[in-house]
Write a structure and sequence with these properties.
Blueprint lengths: L3 E3 L5 E3 L1 H11 L8 H8 L4 H43 L3 H16 L3 E8 L4 E8 L4 H4 L2 E3 L3 H9 L3 E3 L12 H10 L3 E9 L2 E10 L7 H63 L4 H12 L2 E6 L4 E4 L10 H10 L3 E3 L2 E8 L2 E9 L6 H41 L4 H10 L8 E7 L5 H15 L2 E5 L2 E7 L3 H16 L4 E7 L5 H17 L6 E3 H4 L1 H5 L7 H18 L3 H10 L4 H8 L3 H15 L6 H16 L11
Parallel strand pairs: 17-18
Antiparallel strand pairs: 1-2, 3-4, 3-8, 4-5, 6-7, 7-8, 9-10, 9-13, 11-12, 12-13, 14-16, 14-17, 15-16
Helix pairs in contact: 1-3, 2-3, 3-4, 3-8, 4-8, 8-9, 8-11, 9-11, 11-12, 13-14, 18-22, 19-20, 19-22, 20-21
């Protein structure tokens, strides 16, 4: 029998209650509290005493749980205070984050803890610190926003927990994430967001390698540690910014001094280049001076991309259009690969560009010096253009006198020789026209071509005219039309005629003008040629401004029928006339059965009327067919009838 004690009120209490108090004082494990009640039952104590002892045991266990909870809470608070102390000590960021993940592992009694940070550029979150991890793939894992548990926490800014991740359908599983989690053998995972105000910068995790459920208290504890981690990250960022600002302040005085010295050197260089231009230096001398000042090679191009000068030998290097346009838009030198490019401007007008080679790294003072050099180059190019415009005016006046015979031929020959033009050579006269090209631009492009070809350019009878040595007026007319079109940025039509001597120039001008009219009448805008290439059309059509109405009036029913039904009656009629109006030869040329040719000719007769084969009407039709083909609207294919 158990001994009993008597309290002042004579209430009997089991002696085992004292043992329970002793167990509480000793901090004994939970299983030890069942011993007093078991001993009482073994000693066959009265039922009342056993019941009282069971009630005391339950009370003792509740007290034990309360004390354990307080001890756990005390440890958690101690860890949080220690973390706050680490932050106050301003240790490096990696050390603080490692301490936080380690304390989270100790407090939540998990196998692994880890922390990820968001990468705003990549749009994902990546592992930053781990504690307890053994998998290299897991330590290098990146999670897209919304992927897996961590990606979902980073995206939603809410904590998530799972007792068994691989079997949890709430998360978007991906191959790389599931493989890394499986290699680490993780089952239960808890993730909470790292917040800086409303912004989520990462996720703090706690995970076990066996299934378990995370209590709300554990979620709250990990969230508190996450808040400390976020503060540490922000503090480290602010500290780094402060250190950077101090470094910048320390360098400010040095920068001011260096800039002052660079400004002095730039002014001296500008004075040197300007003096070179004012003394009559050419583009090559300026390019050499720029290369010497900047320690690199220099290339100067005009607005058309033609190289004007270079300060070092080498293959031609055309200016990059994109870099020139970028420099023109911003008014600054811009890098292009291992070179620098600066547009040469006169106000908004592009005069050319300067390219600096051999200096891939160009600091701010050198860049400003390069831009000053481009300004001086603009001054030189403006002077060159002024001289060229004067020369072009003189050349234009000579061309006008040649075409109007307003001066003595011997005197004209002398003036031409002074300009480097040999009138004794065979020449060609070109008449130019561009519907969408302003007259000044066309004349500028023509003058440039005249200088390149050793000829003359100007205006005569309200047309831009160019005279140049030529052994093949037809080929030169086509090449000139292409070159002028590129320079003017719009189609330019060129009519040409050869001239063996100065006395032939007036007739050549009239012939070239008729050829130009014919080309425009045929719709061959942007092309070049001579009257000889156009045959009888050059004679018949030179003064007609528009023949499309004649073609439509003559062949209109056939053209409309072909357009609506996809047939080829116009081509059939052309072949029929070309084969001498023979149905047999026409069917061979068209590769058709004679009955098909007969059917097509019958349909042509119904559309054109019964007199379409009369000689006079047939001549009109053949002329219209020729115009239709030469103007480019004809067809050489058979599409059926």
């Amino acid at each position: 029998m158990l001994a009993t004690v008597t309290d002042p009120g004579d209430n009997k209490t089991p002696a085992g209650a004292q043992e329970l108090l002793a167990l509480l004082a000793q901090g004994a494990p939970v299983e030890a509290f069942a011993a007093p009640a078991a001993a009482a039952r073994a000693a066959r104590a009265p039922a009342g005493e056993v019941a009282a002892l069971d009630e005391a045991t339950r009370t003792a266990l509740e007290i034990h749980r309360t004390l354990a909870h307080h001890r756990t809470r005390e440890a958690e608070l101690t860890a949080l205070f220690d973390t706050a102390g680490d932050l106050a000590a301003l240790r490096d960021l990696d050390s603080v984050l490692r301490a936080i993940t380690h304390r989270a592992k100790q407090l939540l009694h998990t196998d692994v803890t880890y922390l990820s940070l968001n990468d705003e550029r990549a749009g994902d979150t990546f592992m930053r610190v781990t504690d307890g991890s053994v998998s290299a793939a897991f330590q290098q894992l990146r999670l897209g926003m919304g992927e897996g548990l961590g990606g979902l926490v980073a995206q939603s800014a809410r904590p998530y927990a799972t007792g068994d991740y691989q079997r949890d359908p709430r998360f978007r599983h991906t191959g790389p994430i599931d493989a890394a989690v499986a290699e680490e053998e993780l089952r239960a995972i808890l993730g909470v967001p790292l917040r800086l105000g409303p912004k989520v910068i990462g996720v703090l995790f706690a995970a076990d390698r066996s299934p378990r459920e995370f209590a709300p208290r554990e979620v709250a504890l990990l969230s508190s540690l996450a808040d400390h981690a976020a503060i540490a990250i922000d503090g480290a960022r602010l500290l780094e910014e402060t250190r950077r600002a101090l470094a910048e302040l320390n360098a400010a005085s040095r920068t001011i001094q260096e800039n002052s010295e660079a400004l002095r050197r730039a002014e001296e260089a500008h004075d040197r280049l300007t003096g070179l231009v004012l003394r009559g230096g050419d583009v090559a001398e300026v390019a050499a001076a720029i290369g010497t000042l900047l320690g690199g090679g220099t290339l100067v191009h005009d607005a058309d991309g033609m190289e004007l000068a270079r300060s070092h030998p080498g293959a031609p290097l055309p200016p990059p259009d994109r870099a020139v346009n970028a420099s023109r838009g911003g008014g600054r030198a811009v890098p292009h690969g291992r070179t620098w490019v600066c547009a040469v401007l006169a106000g908004p007008e592009l005069l050319g560009s300067v390219t600096l080679t051999g200096r891939p790294g160009l600091d701010a003072p050198a860049r400003r010096l390069f831009e000053r050099a481009a300004t001086v180059t603009a001054l030189l190019l403006l002077l060159r253009r002024s001289v060229a415009e004067t020369e072009d005016r003189i050349r234009g006046e000579l061309l006008g006198d040649l075409l109007s015979r307003a001066a003595d031929p011997a005197g004209l020959a002398v003036r031409a020789r002074r300009l480097g033009v040999d009138l004794d050579r065979p020449h060609a006269l070109f008449v130019l026209h561009g519907d969408a090209v302003p007259r000044p631009r066309l004349l500028t492009a023509a003058a440039h071509q005249a200088r390149e070809r050793g000829g003359l350019a100007g205006v005569h009878h309200d047309h831009a005219v160019l005279l140049a040595p030529s052994g093949s007026p037809s080929a030169d007319a086509r090449g000139l039309a292409a070159a002028l079109g590129r320079a003017a940025g719009a189609p330019v039509t060129v009519g040409a005629a050869g001239a063996g001597a100065p006395n032939d120039l007036v007739a050549a001008h009239a012939e070239a003008l008729r050829c130009l009219s014919t080309l425009r009448a045929l719709g061959r805008t942007g092309e070049g040629g001579t009257s000889a290439e156009l045959g009888f059309l050059g004679v018949l059509l030179g003064d007609r401004p528009d023949l499309s109405a004649y073609v439509r009036a003559t062949l209109g029913p056939l053209m409309e029928y072909d357009a609506e039904r996809g047939s080829d009656l116009v081509h059939t009629l052309e072949v029929y006339f070309a084969t001498g109006m023979s149905r047999t030869r026409a069917k061979d040329a068209l590769h058709l059965h004679v009955n098909t040719v007969v059917q097509r000719l019958d349909r042509i007769g119904r559309l054109l009327g019964p007199t379409w084969q009369d000689p006079e009407r047939a001549l009109e039709l053949q002329l219209a067919l020729r115009l239709h083909r030469v103007s480019g609207a004809g067809t050489d294919t058979d599409t059926g009838g």
